Amino acid sequence: MIKPNGKLKLLLAADTYYPKVDGVLMFMEEFMKRAQFHFTLSLLVPKFNAARTPAQFKPVPTTFLDLSPRLRLLTYNSIRFSSRNRKRISQAVQQADIIFIQELGPVGFLALRAARRQGKKVLLYIHNTPWEFLEKYFSLNRLNAFLLRKFFVYWYNRADRLLIPYPELEGELRKAGVQTSISVARLGVDIKRFIPTQRKSRWKKKLHLPPIPLIGYVGRISKEKNTLLLLKAMPQLKRKALLLMVGDGEERLVQKFKGSSQCRVTGFIPNVEEYLKAIDIFVMPSLTETTSLATLEALASGLPVLVTKVGYPRRYIHHGQNGLFFPRRSATVLAERIDQLLADPTSAARLGRQARRTAVSLFSWNRSIKTISKLILKTYTSYT
Length: 384
Description:
Layout: E1 8-14, H1 23-35, E2 39-46, E3 62-65, E4 67-73, E5 76-79, H2 83-94, E6 98-102, H3 106-118, E7 121-125, H4 130-138, H5 142-156, E8 161-164, H6 168-176, E9 181-184, H7 200-206, E10 214-218, H8 228-233, E11 242-246, H9 251-258, E12 263-265, H10 272-278, E13 281-284, H11 293-300, E14 305-307, H12 313-316, E15 324-325, H13 331-343, H14 345-362, H15 365-382
Helix pairs in contact: 1-15, 2-3, 4-5, 7-10, 11-14
């Protein structure tokens, strides 16, 4: 049972941390703001740059893990698989009552293994389908993709409960062989931070952007996000526009975007909401997604959105009502969709208004974190 004289001690383990801001870290930010009233929180994360830690995170006890100078995980170095790191992980797990892992990267894997050895209960949030993501990122053959899937399924089944962002993902996981308990805990968006504006010209001026239509993307510039499709679509537009890539990513791809006169790359920025106020049309061309927090933020910002029909966006986006779909491999169709919206601002505004309604009605962080907190307590009390 829960200790009557104190909060449950919850260790939040993740393979992401500042300055690596992604969807998982955004979830952690929102979770920590709200869950601190229910739990005594601590963090287990890679030591990318502790100096970048925001003030609200600094009071939270944090175990930082050393990085490997050679082993890179996408655009950031992975943690060392060293005895020193393993000892730190073991101690962090030992001091907690229950472990909440965000994805199953090196940190998540080692935290789960340590928790199993110590008999601690584990919840694992699946923010994306890792074998699908890695298969596309590394262009794996069928055998390697099969073995990778088996690896993840084995460790998923070692967790006490999996949390997933939308119901359809459970069918995919069960089909793959996952047998452990699965609960749906929808993610959310900060509808007070991300809000529509009628003064786009003002925001373009403030951010030193040209007074022309801005086609925007927010997130990692990477292969699995299919970002080069945006670069291929821009020369096919009938109207003059600028492609604004809000984020950073693989250096090879970033340089291609920077080399285009039709594109501007911001790199990492903390004030994403300001750039969304300047953007006219949001595009998410990804090959693989789960919830896509960037798309939710665009919806909340009242933008007309163009997305590929993958993951959860194919459920909450309704073509012609609150957004538009386009084929994952067709730059021509994407350019046609953009031209369609630029030529008909009335329809674009209607899509944006309905997009905002979707975000407000379906994606509340307060409701999401409340659900997750209940599931954490349920998992702990069911086995103690």
